[in-house]
């Protein structure tokens, strides 16, 4: 039995497609309405303007990641297991949303306030403070070498995101590998990133 998609869901699916393909500046409400198979007046009935729709779409995407990461951060896992779970969850999300990193990077360079607003208005805040405290505790317990937690977290996120954001350079210029092989490399990132992080911080 097929589940009927609501008008609002059709709009959000169409808007995600248009925003990712055209970006904030290039997206038009008429095009989103056409893709959703509705008229523009009905689109504005559900979402009064493009900014409201964009923030809802962005929250719908990132809202699948942040709560998952926060659950991991709040868990009772030891610090090394927590780091591995964090990396695994992040890579899994990126594998399922491979167009997102470049899209977010482009929008941050042009419309940073819009992206930040989407996070703030929807309560999408990673609990990095708790992770920072646990890293300091691990340093005090001599589990890991003295390191600025900000650098550690930035390194983890960067190593997860950049192979997706810079895939054209990696895949077509630096390595010249077919799509299937590059996808396999992306899946291997979980293990590779964890091992690089582990061996760089463990005492």
TrEMBL record:
Domain HTH tetR-type stretches: 5-65
Pfam families assigned to the protein according to its UniProt record, in alphabetical order: TetR_N
Taxonomy, superkingdom: Bacteria
Coiled coil: none
Family matches, as InterPro entries: Homeodomain-like_sf (IPR009057), HTH-type_TetR-like_transc_reg (IPR050109), HTH_TetR (IPR001647), Tet_transcr_reg_TetR-rel_C_sf (IPR036271)
Keyword terms: DNA-binding
DNA-binding region(s) in UniProt: 28-47
Alphabetized PANTHER family for the sequence: HTH-TYPE TRANSCRIPTIONAL REPRESSOR SCO4008 (PTHR30328:SF54), TRANSCRIPTIONAL REPRESSOR (PTHR30328)
Name this protein carries in UniProt: TetR/AcrR family transcriptional regulator
């Amino acid at each position: 039995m097929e589940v009927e998609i609501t008008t609002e869901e059709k709009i959000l699916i169409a808007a995600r497609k248009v925003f990712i393909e055209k970006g904030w500046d290039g997206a038009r409400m008429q095009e989103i309405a056409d893709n959703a198979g509705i008229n523009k007046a009905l689109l504005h009935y559900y979402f009064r303007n493009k900014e409201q729709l964009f923030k809802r779409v962005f929250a719908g995407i990132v809202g699948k990641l942040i709560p998952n990461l926060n659950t991991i951060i709040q868990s009772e896992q030891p610090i090394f297991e927590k780091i591995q779970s964090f990396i695994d969850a992040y890579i899994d999300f990126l594998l399922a949303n491979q167009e997102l990193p470049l899209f977010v990077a482009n929008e941050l360079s042009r419309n940073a306030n819009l992206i930040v607003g989407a996070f703030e208005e929807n309560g999408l805040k990673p609990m990095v403070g708790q992770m920072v405290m646990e890293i300091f505790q691990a340093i005090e317990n001599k589990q890991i070498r003295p390191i600025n937690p900000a650098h550690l977290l930035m390194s983890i996120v960067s190593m997860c995101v950049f192979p997706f954001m810079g895939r054209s350079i990696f895949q077509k210029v630096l390595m010249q590998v077919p799509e299937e092989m590059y996808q396999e490399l992306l899946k291997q990132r979980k293990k590779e990133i964890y091992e690089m992080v582990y061996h760089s911080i463990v005492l």
